[in-house]
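We now fix the convention by which a protein and its fold are recorded. Think of the row as the fold of the chain written in a discrete alphabet. Here is one such record, which you should read through line by line.
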Amino acid sequence: MHTSPAEITRLLGAVASGDPDAMERLLPAVYGELKVLAASYLRRERGDHTLSPTALVHEAYLKLVDQRTVNWEGRSHFFGIAAQAMRRILVDHARRRIAKKRGRQLQVTLDTSAELAGAPPDEEVTAVDEALARLATVDPRQARLVELRYFAGLSIEEAAEVTGVSPATVKRDWALARAWLQRELRSGT
């Protein structure tokens, strides 16, 4: 069953205003899209990943519904936050695996000399996460845009709606952010 973006936005508004029945209707309305998003994330992970798309959706959804102070601005905002939650879950999972494997917490920085292409998948995940965190210190809007476009899969128009800027600005920021991240990952990680 496909739920329209307007209906999802209406349900999110009802959840924000405390309607307990809206929460019951929200999960079935967004589950399919969240599962597609989770599968997209996991395709970029190592083949033997222990999380399934279903498990990732459930973990992320639990984090999302626990957000009592979020004023959901609509479908795009919800999926942007969902993508951020999934990314955090996967990065935390990768860090735990690295720590368990090496008996310590590995810190990957952008000025390490190892090549990203040769890094094990868990280290690659943490390197990308740290590069994105570094971009957030340089340009928070561009970092947010990477989360929305790359991780949440939002279109230019949807990302513009969430960030409150024009589609032209989103296109320009998207190109700059991608170039910045590619340079950082090539030069140091």
Residues 5-188 form one domain.
